[in-house]
Amino acid sequence: MKKVVIIGGGIGGMALGIILHKSGVQVIINEREPVVPMGGNAFLMHSDGISVLQMFLNKKEIDNIPGELIHTFILKRPDETEIKYLKLEPWQCIKRRDLIAFLCNQIDATLIKPNRTFSHFMYENEIAIAAVFQNGEIEYGDIFVGADGANSQVRFNLFGKVNFSEVSVKEIIGVVKIPTIAIKYANVFTKYLSQEKGLSFGFIPTSHEELVWFMQFDVKLLELKDSNPDTLREFCTYLLKDFPEIVHEIIGLNDFSTSYVWNATDFDLLPTFHKKNVVLIGDAAHLAMPFTSAGTTNALNDAKILAKKIISSNNYEEAFIDFYKERAEDVKEHTLLGREVAQNFLHPQKISEDELTVPLITHRQAKSKIKPKYKRIHLLYFTDPVCSTCWVIQPQLRKLKLEYGDFVEIDYCMGGLLPSWDNFQSGGIKTPEDAGEYWQRANEKYDQPIYPDIWYTDPPESSFPPSIAFKAAQMQDIDKAIIFLRRINELLFFENKNIVGNIPIHNAAFESGLDAARLMRDLEGKAQELFQEDLKLAKQLDINVLPTFIFTDRYDNSRILKGFQEYEKFENIILEMIPGVQKNLIKKNYNNLFKKYPTLTTKEFSFLIDLNLIEAENILIDLFQKNIIHKFSTNKDGIIWKLVN
Fold this sequence. Notes:
Layout: E1 3-7, H1 11-22, E2 26-30, E3 42-46, H2 47-54, H3 59-63, E4 68-76, E5 82-95, H4 96-104, E6 112-113, E7 118-124, E8 127-133, E9 138-140, E10 143-146, H5 153-159, E11 169-177, H6 179-184, E12 188-193, E13 199-205, E14 210-218, H7 229-239, H8 245-253, E15 260-264, E16 274-275, E17 278-280, H9 295-312, H10 316-346, E18 377-383, H11 388-392, H12 394-404, E19 408-414, H13 432-445, H14 454-457, H15 464-476, H16 478-494, H17 502-511, H18 516-522, H19 526-540, E20 548-552, E21 558-562, H20 567-577, H21 590-596, E22 599-601, H22 602-609, H23 613-625, E23 629-633, E24 639-643
Helix pairs in contact: 1-4, 1-9, 2-9, 9-10, 12-20, 12-22, 15-16, 15-19, 16-17, 17-18, 22-23
């Protein structure tokens, strides 16, 4: 049986030891501290890291993973001007000592050996056979793992010195109990960033009582002579003198005897993470600037992948080579991103607010392997946020994307339906009350929920502001812009909320995964020009009905559909333009459909799975009763369903 000797009892080393131990591998974890290390303050962990922990936990233990969920990132200037307002992939803010204590409960305490500071290896025929520690103790094994951090002695033993980058940024970190702030800013990562110099301050709740804070600064701004508590307090107070009151409240209540200074540095990707039967993980193997918040998640990913290689292979060198191949690209990307963010931080005047990189690394996006068999059809789709027909035709449009999305590229244009109610007349509608009556008839005719009350209680005065907002969304991300359009449609047609105004637009942008702060800036600039271009194109093409669909094939042959259409008409045009095309078969399980479309009406679900409304509703009710999907309803008939996260 293999015996794995892990040198370093931090998060990566502990996680590796637990995974191996629970898989039947003999393991010993060696830690230089007299007890399991409880130093450090707190960190952000991406959901990728949480998923590693979940590998060896039962349901009750998963629910008890320490920390606070973080789902929002807000970046501001010291004058409170909002720069970025983003919905994050799931992150967790966790105190280091809490996670270490949690991990200790997952493994037999006799497998953790304290007071062992690594000295050197004993070798036979160039193969390490034992780790020797400074206290004279020796641990024999078959595989040795260096998990001893950025200043790894195991790495030095294998490869000698690495060239650390020059320290141009330092970070002061602390944890402070302020329940009022922790509760008010729950689930939010708030950061203030200077526009004139390399200086920032951020804070993140770790619980409903505590928060971790940090100050990052260009070392050229002011020399930090020592790290005693009084010096640190004076240093932070002076540099942050122009930052808002909440920053000074946090600094004022912090116990600086528990704070520490971190030197932001890294080193180039190593050519390998191993030598013979000794391998490195975590910061010992690769180190990125702290701007990426990647360290802990990377260490846990290392532990997961290396454990899998060790367990499944009888040849440790092949396992270590495969481990490097699987991890090298990711960690190199993190290193480069950290350096990019550091340079932007040091030279804030050289980069626009839109170009600022959000300093939170996530997993790489998978590249699509789909290659269309035919050249795509271009579909120019004219729509409007307050167009009821555009709403009730969503089942057809969503099915079209699923079945023919490999062949049809859809380009969304705004049709400018409602400039204002002054002298408005279209389709017999002259007043908001007329619009309400029109919607009432649509509600009776179609199964897509559409409620007219808004036109009597708080009628939108124009469709132009949400149309411009859609163009601003397109400037960021075309796919998220479509999600944004869907969200404002739901607000208007289903929730009876006026979508004209900064608050609903800002909220919808955030909920759609867009940078809401940037979208609000773009509303006043380029987005207005793009909207005018849409209106000009609509006029040139004589678009007088919404929705209008213009299909164009590779030979520039065009077909037009106007207004509400049955699905067969869309399909017939595609078959004419691409004879013999084979549509994609829709995977009709609920998980696939809700993954593609996060919210579905009963009509949409029934249309996509080819069942009648009653049959579809029975399936949805069953999923709801099993707590698989959420159910959102109003005081009228009609429901929107959403997958439980």
